Every structure is written in C-alpha cells, then in structure tokens.
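User: For a reading group we're discussing how well predicted structures match intuition. Take Type I restriction modification DNA specificity domain-containing protein. Before you show the prediction, I'll give you the sequence so everyone sees exactly what went in.
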Amino acid sequence: MNGKQLKNSILQWAIQGKLVPQDPNDEPASVLLDKIRQEKERLIKEKKIKRDKNASIIYRGEDNSYYEKILATGEVKCIDEEIPFDVPQGWEWCRVSSLFQINPKVVAEDNTSAAFIPMEAISAGYGSEFRYYEKKWGEIKSGYTAFADNDIAFAKITPCFQNRKSVIFEGLPNGIGAGTTELKILRTYGETINRWFVLYFLESPYFIDEATFKGTANQQRIIVGYLENKLFPLPPLAEQERIVGKIGLVMPIIDKYSKSQELLDKMNVELNECLKKSVLQEAIQGKLVPQIAEEGTAQELLEQIKAEKQKLVKEGKLKKSALDSSVIFRGDDNKYYEQIGKKCRDITEQIPFEIPSNWEWCRVRNVSNSYIGLTYKPTDIDEKGTIVLRSCNIRNGKLALDDIVRVSSSISEKMLIEENDIIICARNGSKRLVGKSALIRNLPEPMTFGAFMAICKTPIYEYMFAYLQSDLFFGQLRDVSNTTTINQLTQNKFNDFLIPIPPVREQERIAFKISQLFQELR
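Assistant: Thanks. Here is the predicted 3D structure of Type I restriction modification DNA specificity domain-containing protein, as structure tokens, for the group to look at:
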C-alpha cells in the first residue's frame, strides 16, 4: 500500500467511525442537527438566507430501515439503497445541503481589500494550503466565486477535483475573498461542525470516487446536485474533534512513509534499469550465454549477409553504396585493424572490450541498411491516410499508437514499414530521446515514418534491437552528439558505429535469454 492509498484508507475509516473509539458520554449528532436548524431559522427570519424547499430529515424507523422526510411536503420515502455504509450509534445521516450554506453571498464595500485566489494558488493533496493576491473587492466581486474566512472550498472540475484541491480559508484580508469559478463553497452554521472534518470528508474516497461528471473529455465538472444531495455521515462534535486530532497525528507519519515508499519505488525502478543494462552488456560481450563450437562463426554470417546484399543490388532493390563496407580483423601483433578497400588502419583504441573467438567486430553498415523517413506538408495530413510514425510513437521499445498522424501523400514501397524493421528516433528537440528505438511486430495496418526517424533493416533484428538498447550503442551516440549542437544521429554516423557480432544461432539464444530475464525483472 502506497502513501496515497494509506491516506485514503485513513479518511475512509474516519468518516465511517472506525478511526477513533466512540464515547457514550458524547452529545449525539442529533443535538447538532437541532442547533443547525435553529441557526437556519434565525438566518431565515433575518432574511439572510432563503428557506430550502427540499430540506429533509433522515431517520431510522422501527423496522431498522432508513427514511427521508421532506419537511415542506411531509413526503416520506425509504432510502436504504442510498445508505453507503453503517455508522456508529450517536451519528446521523444528512444531506450536505441540510448542513451547510452552499456558495453563500459575501457583502463588502468596493474599496475593501480582499484576497484573490485563482485555481493554481490552491495546493492539491490532503491538506489546506493556498496563497492569494490582494485586490479591491470592487474588482473581484462579480464574475468570480466569493468566500470568507472559515469557508471550506473544493475544486469541482477535473483533474483538480480528483487531485483533491480543497481548502479551509483563513487569514483573508478583511476576512473575504473571491477566485476561480471552478470552486464550490461550503459554510457551516456557526460552530456546529469541525471544518477539518468537513475537509477530510471532501477528500475521502467516498466523496471523490463516487462523483459523476458532465462536460467534454478535457473539462468535466461534477454534476449539478452531486454535492448538495450527497449523504454526509455526521458524528458528535466531540468525536469529530478526536477524529481530526487523530488524522493530524498520523498524516505526518504517512507523509514520511510516502516519501520512503517513493524513494524505494524509484530505487527499484533504477535497479531494474541497471539490471537490464547489465544483461544487455553481458549479452553483447558474449557473457550471457555459453558459446557452442558447433554453431559456427560470425564470419560465416557476415559473408551470408554480404552475399544477400549483392543479390539485392543486382535486383535493383538496394543501391550500390550498400556494398560499401570494411573488414575488421586482429593482426599477428594482437592489434585490431580495419581494411577499407586498399587502405588499412589501426583501430585498436576504438575496440571497447574483448569478445569470444567465434565473434567478429564490424560496422553497423555491414549488417544493416538504414535511411531516414519522409517529409510531409501540413496539407498532406488526412485522417484517412497512412500512419506516419514519429518519436512519440516509440515507448519502452514498442509502438504506441495513441497519438498518430496520417498523411495522404503518395508513399513508395521503400518507405513502408515491414515486420521486424527497427524504427529509431534520429532527431529530436530533446537530446535524451535521440536513439530510442522500437522493434516492429504485428503491424495492424500499413505505416511509414517521418523525416526525424530512421529505419534499420537487418536479418539479425532481434540481436540488433538488443544492441540498440545497450550502453555500447548509447556511448557511441554520446560521442557523436558531443560534436554537434543539433540533437541528431545521422545515418553516416550510425553506419560507422561498431557492433560485436555473434554466430546466428547464438544470437537466437541471446535474444531468448534477454526476453526471459526481462520478464523476471517486471
């Protein structure tokens, strides 16, 4: 259970009468209700409030069922199905509208200093924190929600409602203020209800999770009447104060627990990431699975890939430049050399680590074919067109299609993505996103990719994908990134990256082992 869940449980226990023991000597909540009704009548006589035509009382009948009586009409109905949970003896069920003034008026002179409080000035969470800007009452008395010291407020719009933006106003200039129209205000009738108990009620899962909303997807508000008609479990005042005191004691402890839990969760995530990186590093160094002599050599695989490339060039499916390659070998002096045409150079300092004897070092261009995507104009965008993959469509090594763009422009066969292609973010405003990749599986429909993306086609796609997530790849990426102010991975640079190649059968065992270990790390 995390800190938020624990806080929710505490608040739920509080409003159900399970947080502190009941005291039979407490004055029952029914006495509070009498005081509230008396205060209401006084305010009605003074014409400060109007009589509520829907005012009701809720009581338990001799048959143990709950009934609600509308005072204006005398109508009585059974409300057993509305009662969400049992409450202790001495508590009472009431409608919120019976206990509070909702969005009451505030009257003051125009030149009076007052607090102005926009939504962003109210803190989210399980507390009561806010800041204000001082303005004259005449500037804010119209077009905003008015409130006064000791009023309780909560946000009625998503996601502020779910984030528990709620507050008890205290210390306002001249005791008054106004602010965002997205607030609902509750005012108690005198000192009949502990305001912190009300705040905890408004922050409880019972109030938050059961709300219904109306509006567009991005701007939903609680429906009219949700607050007013919500059933409120009212404890004796003395018990309210014990509940508030108990919550005040445990919340700081929960906050410490929550911070410790967040730190532990962060450490677990970081540990998982470190373990994954270690697995990938072991994989590309030939240490993850044992070598088997009968599986042949990487040299045989490289020759097969070269032969396949030559075939595709003859068929016109690849450019002749795809045959540009080099051979990396170890000389009699134990140094590494790279043969490019007739030239040979010492690259020993570039080799980052030793690999098994049946592996080979080569450049990425030797085992793959890569190129950047298409450029399109805003006028090409068409909701019935072909999906164009962008960097936002790569998430945790997989495709994420919740934010897509489609284009209607003509797309060549070369620019269409195929199963087992690897899509790479080659350019981005954020440096940390350059190099992230996804292995394409189970294409639901034809797709292409944008100009800030690159495609990598290779027969060793499983192993290549593991390499693209390794520290070896990202280390080389950092080296080339430090030479330019633009956050990009050019295809020339990518093709020059070093990659250690195992025999094909060993690659299959490596891919299986990585999948198995990553599954265990979830």
